[in-house]
Specification:
CATH architecture: Alpha-Beta Barrel
Family: Belongs to the HEBP family.
Protein name: Heme-binding-like protein At3g10130, chloroplastic
CATH topology: Multidrug-efflux Transporter 1 Regulator Bmrr, Chain A
CATH class: Alpha Beta
Number of strands: 10
CATH superfamily: Regulatory factor, effector binding domain
Largest sheet: 5 strands, antiparallel
Order of helices and strands: EEEHEEEEEHEE
InterPro entries: Reg_factor_effector_dom_sf, SOUL_heme-bd
Number of domains: 1
Helix content: 10-25%
Pfam families: SOUL
Shape: globular
C-alpha cells in the first residue's frame, strides 16, 4: 500500500543540506556507485521504461539478477534519467527527456554498501555500465505529480532563473529524479529536478 501512497521505503542518496530557500535547496551529495544504460527511446515503441527494464533485470527486481554473481541488489530511489550526454557528473536519478530520437541515459544509484565500481556485481548485459559518481553539489527543486516534459522544462527554467538571481553558477545540465513507481497516485509522487552548481 505504501508504494501506491508514495511512501519511500528504500535507501536514498546521502547529502548535506548547504542552503534552503523558498524556491530550491542546494545539497552536497556523497560519492556513489551507479548502474546506467543509454538507449534510444524510439526502440521501445510505446514503452518509455525500456531503460528501467534493463536496469531492473540487472539488480534482480524483475526475475533472476542478470549479473555475473547472480547477486540480488536492493532497489534504491530515485531513478535518474537525462537526455543526451551531460557534461557534469549526474546524481543517482533517472532523467526524463528524450525528444524524438534523442538518446536517454537512465541510472540506478546502487546501495551505499558499494563504495567502488568494482565492488558491484558485473552486469551480464553489456549495455549496463557500472561507474562511480564523485561528490557533487546540486540545486534541487522537489515537486509532485507526473513529470511530463512540459512540467520538467518549466521547473528547470524557473530553477535556473532563481539560481542566476541568487548568484549561483550552473555547471551542467539538469537531471530528473523520480522516487516512486508509476502506479503511485500522481499527487503523491515525489520528483526532483537537479542542476549541478559550483
Amino acid at each position: 500500500m505504501g508504494l501506491i501512497l508514495g511512501k519511500i521505503s528504500v535507501e536514498t542518496p546521502k547529502y548535506e543540506l548547504v542552503q534552503s530557500t523558498s524556491d530550491y535547496e542546494i545539497r552536497k551529495y556523497e560519492p556513489s556507485v551507479v548502474a546506467e544504460v543509454a538507449y534510444d527511446p524510439t526502440q521501445f515503441r510505446g514503452n518509455k521504461d525500456g531503460g528501467f527494464t534493463v536496469l531492473a533485470k540487472y539488480i534482480g527486481a524483475i526475475g533472476e539478477p542478470q549479473n555475473i554473481k547472480s547477486e540480488k541488489v536492493a532497489m534504491t530511489a530515485p531513478v535518474i534519467t537525462k537526455s543526451e550526454k551531460i557534461s557534469m557528473t549526474a546524481p543517482v536519478v533517472t532523467e526524463g527527456g528524450g525528444g524524438e530520437g534523442k538518446p536517454v541515459t537512465m541510472q540506478f544509484v546502487l546501495p551505499s554498501k558499494y563504495k567502488k565500481a568494482e565492488e558491484a556485481p558485473k552486469p551480464a548485459d553489456e549495455r549496463v555500465v557500472i561507474k562511480e559518481e564523485g561528490e557533487r553539489k546540486l540545486a534541487v527543486v522537489r515537486f509532485s505529480g507526473i513529470a511530463t516534459e512540459g512540467v520538467v522544462a518549466e521547473k528547470v527554467e524557473k530553477l535556473k532563473k532563481s539560481l542566476e538571481k541568487d548568484g549561483h553558477k550552473v555547471i551542467g545540465d539538469y537531471v530528473l529524479a523520480r522516487y516512486n513507481p508509476p502506479w503511485t497516485l500522481p499527487s503523491l509522487r515525489t520528483n526532483e529536478v537537479m542542476i549541478p552548481v559550483e
